[in-house]
Amino acid sequence: MEKRDEVIVNKEFNRESLAEFDGLDGKPAYIARDGAVYDVSGSKLWQNGEHMKRHHAGLDLSADFSAAPHGPEVLERVLRLGTMREESPAEAAEPRIPAWLNELLARYPLMVRHPHPMLVHFPIAFMFAVPLFSLLALLTSNASYETTAFHCLGAGLLFTPLTITTGFFTWWLNYHARLSHPIKMKIIGSALLMLLILILFAWRFVAPDILFAGGGWGIVYLLLLLALIPVASVVGWFGASLTFPTAVKK
What we know:
This protein has 250 residues and is an alpha+beta fold. It folds into two domains: 7-93, Flavocytochrome B2, Chain A, domain 1 (Roll); 110-243. The chain has helices spanning 15-19, 62-66, 89-92, 99-107, 110-113, 115-140, 143-174, 181-206, 215-243, and strands spanning 7-13, 30-33, 36-39, 50-51, 55-56, 79-84. Strands 1-6-3-2 form a four-stranded mixed beta sheet. Helix 6 (115-140) packs antiparallel against helix 7. The protein is elongated, with a radius of gyration of 24 Å. The protein starts with 6 loop residues before the first strand and ends in a 7-residue tail after the last helix.
């Protein structure tokens, strides 16, 4: 493929001027890397200023490239518009995140991307286990299965808030708190899941025999238990779509 990494404008940008070209509402999509600014507007991989539902135009993506599965050679396919203006000491002293957090992330780089992915599997697994053990309890009339379901519900009550908290942290740190469709669905789904867990845990706590009670309330309780599976699945699916897009345009 012919290289296009030539300067056609030689314009100087700073953080504020670069941010104007975020690819939204028909605007061009520019990104910066290692002091150079590139126009990625013509790339199908940067539709609406977004790449792989993770990276956004209008920003300096130098750090992101260090963790990308490809090298900087991909930028040879797009036009280089100019350079980033070197920041003054005063500007450099105004990071996007607090200095103490910068130091913490530099010391423990695991926290940059991994806290949320490490935790997210726990509530999903527990929310599948709760209705499955409950159904086993009903089919076998074995109360120990129902007790296990309640313990899994308690574990979900513990891990889900931690997972939601780390999710918001990852969204703010790595996605610049941009409210994309998958993020909206994750927020709505997570709130609904947390509400379901709280209702079910409190209900089971005050009425230990509710699953075996039969009648209308027993059925409602069982239906709410079964609802945990689709709600957790939707949250997990939209979370996975951020990392593994289902329709990558070429």
